[in-house]
Specification:
By secondary structure, the protein is an alpha+beta fold. The protein has helices at 2-5, 41-52, 55-65, 70-77, 81-84, 89-101, 136-146, 188-198, 210-213, 218-233, 240-249, 251-265, 272-287, 294-309, and strands spanning 9-16, 24-30, 108-113, 122-130, 148-158, 166-175.
């Protein structure tokens, strides 16, 4: 710090240990020329205080600033040294808050976020799991189908056998499609996509990439998946992976198909839905002019035909099944 602020180099330093609990270090900063920068003593002292401040000191300050929750502070204090080398005390408290909410009956929580140095097409994900680590072979395929590429991974362990072990899997991600990853909702959309697969509510397949490309929620993707499955039943030659990939290649059209379904069969279908459906159909047909691949064109037109041929749906019936 000193060589940087004074635009020089560390020429020598001399530690001294007088009686008592204090130590003194004399630093000599050499400079090659030019005017010596003037730095306020208070600025230097504040910076040095931050340098010598321990992670535990920062945790105490962060806990006090956030309301002094001693239970969360205790959880954060048990985080391993490898975690402390990577994350601040404030982040540790946020992680402790998520850890406190999981248990054997509710074993998982996730958090999508972005490091300050990451680019828009990059993000990070923490998976908190109670009791046992989540194997890469279970995590990675789900994320890949949502449209992420896993770049790196590290795992931290907190707790003990008596209080219950929690494993934190921290993963660096990239958008497989090269587009920015939208985290303006705090990652809620991608959390919905991941946990829906985790709970077994939806299939782990390429349709889930529509969360990334088209911004659709898992319940909305289910509609397009159902039509894709029907196309398979009636003998369309393209595979489910190909159909899902076609929708992901044209996310605007995929959103339009979902919107057309809502307009034609949703709660307002008999009122403003009629006009909306007409405009949506025209918009989709216009967009088809820019689809050069005959297979993609065929799939989209089949979707359009099926949605127009649909007379009723139970999609909007409240789900009373216990989760």
């Amino acid at each position: 710090y000193l060589k940087t602020v004074f635009e020089g180099r560390l020429s020598a330093y001399y530690p001294a240990f007088p009686e008592g609990g204090l130590a003194r270090v004399h630093f000599i900063i050499g400079r090659s020329g030019g005017k010596t920068p003037k730095v306020e003593q208070a600025t230097i002292e504040a910076a040095i205080r931050d340098i010598v401040r321990t992670w535990e000191d920062a945790l105490s300050d962060a806990a006090e600033a956030s309301g002094g929750d001693q239970a969360l502070k205790a959880i954060a204090a048990r985080l391993p040294e490898s975690y402390r080398d990577s994350f601040s005390a404030a982040v540790a408290l946020a992680d402790a808050r998520r850890i406190a909410k999981i248990s054997a009956g509710n074993p998982i929580a996730i958090d999508y976020y972005r490091h300050a140095e990451q680019k828009p097409h990059q993000a990070a994900l923490k998976i908190y799991h109670h009791g046992s680590p989540v194997a890469l072979s279970r995590r990675v395929p789900v994320l890949e189908n949502i449209g992420f590429r896993v770049i790196s991974e590290r795992t931290f362990e907190v707790g003990d056998e008596q209080s219950g072990l929690v494993f934190i899997h921290d993963m660096e991600l990239e958008n497989s499609y090269g587009k920015p990853i939208d985290l303006t909702d705090g990652g809620a959309l991608f959390e919905d996509a991941f946990l829906s697969v985790w709970r077994g509510d939806v299939d782990n397949d390429g349709y889930n990439g529509l969360a990334q490309t088209a911004g659709l929620w898992s319940g909305e993707i289910t509609i397009l998946r159902a039509y894709g499955r029907y196309l398979q039943q009636v003998g369309i030659p393209q595979s489910q992976d190909f159909i899902a990939a076609a929708l992901n290649r044209y996310p605007d059209i995929a959103r339009g198909l979902h919107a057309l379904f809502i307009a034609r069969l949703g709660p307002t279908a008999e009122t403003e839905g009629v006009v909306a459906a007409k405009h949506l159909k025209a918009k989709i047909k216009d967009a088809l002019e820019d689809v050069p691949n005959i297979d993609d064109d065929t799939i989209i037109r089949r979707y359009l035909n099926l949605i127009e041929a649909s007379l009723r749906t139970n999609h909007f019936v409240a789900d009373t099944k216990e989760k």
